[in-house]
Amino acid sequence: MLASPAVAVTFASKMFGVMAWIMPIFVGLSVFGGVNGVLFTSSRLFYVGAQEGHLPIIFGMIHFKRCTPTPSLIFTCVLSVAMLTTSDIYTLINYLSFIQWLWVGVAILGMMYLRWKKPYMPRPIKVSLAIPVSFFLCCVFLTVIPLYAQPMETGLGLLIILSGVPVYFILIKNKRKSAAISSISGKITKELQKLLEVMTPEKEE
User: What band does 109 get if pLDDT is binned at 50, 70 and 90?
Assistant: First the structure.
């Protein structure tokens, strides 16, 4: 007579009993909502980068009716699909989480620096320094621990970040573009504008 397979005892089965099946559903919905927010945020980062001249101008354009950064959203979607082609999901998570929390910490540190150096700048939202300091310490923890636990993955992530430094100084800082490249870029931008129905947003005076 065959023995019945052992049932794994989980937190959900202990807490909810026969309703334990709702836990993975809620976790899935939470992940879906979090990823949705990250994708929309990432596309706006590409949009702002293009507005500042750090990316092709097409990524700084919006749909003429819906006012959404369509090119940046498509670019984010393509990058996301490309990342899914990897077979090692844990390495991908390590890369992205380390880089994400590193730059979040740098951004928080920059805002605290501006608050110290330029205390009279207009700020629509102002909170106690205890909040950004606590959040910054959490970012430091989430950055330092992976460096110690997985130096290979995090080291490669740092190299990928640093590879953008020479690109910035060569292509962005000096703004050296040949006439041929500018002409080709302009033609591609115009065709993409027609295809995606996007335009450069009007700046407020």
Answer: very high
Residue 1 CA to its chain's centroid (Å): 55
Query: H/E element holding 190?
Result: helix 179-196
> Does the pLDDT value for residue 2 go beyond 60?
no
Read off the pTM: 0.68
Strand partners, 63: 198
How many degrees, rounded to 5, is the angle at CA 131 between CA 125 and CA 135?
Answer: 115
Closest CA to 41 of 67, 74, 76, 71: 76
Q: Quick one: which H or E segment has residue 17?
A: none
pLDDT level of residue 65 (50, 70, 90 thresholds)? confident
DSSP alpha helix (H) spans, 52-173: 70-83, 89-117, 130-149, 151-162, 164-167
Residues 176 and 170 sit within 8 Å (Cβ to Cβ): yes
As a whole number of angstroms, the distance between CA 61 and CA 8 comes to 52
**β-bridge partners, 198:** 63
DSSP single-letter state for residue 107? H
User: What residues have CB less than 8 Å from 68, skipping those under 6 apart?
Assistant: 62
Taking the CB of residue 101, how many other CB atoms lie within 10 A of it? 19
Contact 26, 169 (CB under 8 A): no
Instruction: Give the chain's end-to-end CA distance (angstroms, integer).
Output: 82
Residue 20: helix, strand or coil by DSSP?
coil
For residue 90 the two structure tokens come to 């844990």
The closest alpha carbon to 71, from 63, 80, 81, belongs to 63
